[in-house]
């Protein structure tokens, strides 16, 4: 296993890459929806026009909401310093447990680095809530399984 700060930096890089890709896709979707909406305005009349325009508007609003959520995730990640050390489980900590390694950041699921699986969890996730504030050596129960905290960085 690499140094914790290196692992955190690599995970942050991977998560930021994923967010950039999602942002780019959403921006393209929004641009296409706006163009479609504007073209509908120029060429259509009647109820069919209104229905089509409403559907395009709903898609546009959905994509804009997703973009805002993605920007919020980006802001959350920017608050993490990969060089920070922790004694308790908190936002930005890398936690090695008997059930796996967790990075407390944003809800993303697993990231694989050098064949090692690391789960990116939100502190408000069920496991995140259980582990929040705990120290190395503490144990918690989750879905009938005992999770022992081995190391926190």
Write the topology of this structure.
Elements: H1 4-43, H2 47-78, E1 94-97, E2 100-104, E3 109-113, E4 116-121, H3 126-131, E5 139-142, E6 145-152
Parallel strand pairs: 2-4
Antiparallel strand pairs: 1-2, 1-6, 3-4, 5-6
Helix pairs in contact: 1-2
Question: Any overview of this molecule?
Answer:
The chain folds into 2 domains: about 80 residues; about 60 residues, no CATH class. It is built from 3 helices and 6 strands, in the order ααββββαββ. A 6-stranded mixed sheet has the order 3-4-2-1-6-5. The protein has about 150 residues and is α+β, with helices and mostly antiparallel strands. The relative contact order is 0.15. The model has no long low-confidence stretch (mean pLDDT about 90). Helix 1 packs antiparallel against helix 2. Helix content is about 50%, strand content about 20%. This is 3-oxoacyl-ACP synthase.
Oligomeric status of the shown chains? Answer: single chain
Main β-sheet, spatial strand arrangement: 3-4-2-1-6-5
Looking at the structure, what is the overall shape? elongated
For the biggest sheet, the summary is: 6 strands, mixed
Protein name: 3-oxoacyl-ACP synthase
Task: Provide key terms for this protein.
153 residues, alpha+beta, single chain, 3-oxoacyl-ACP synthase
Provide a quick synopsis of the model.
It comes from Maribellus luteus. With 153 residues, the chain is α+β, with helices and mostly antiparallel strands. The protein has helices at 4-43, 47-78, 126-131; strands at residues 94-97, 100-104, 109-113, 116-121, 139-142, 145-152.
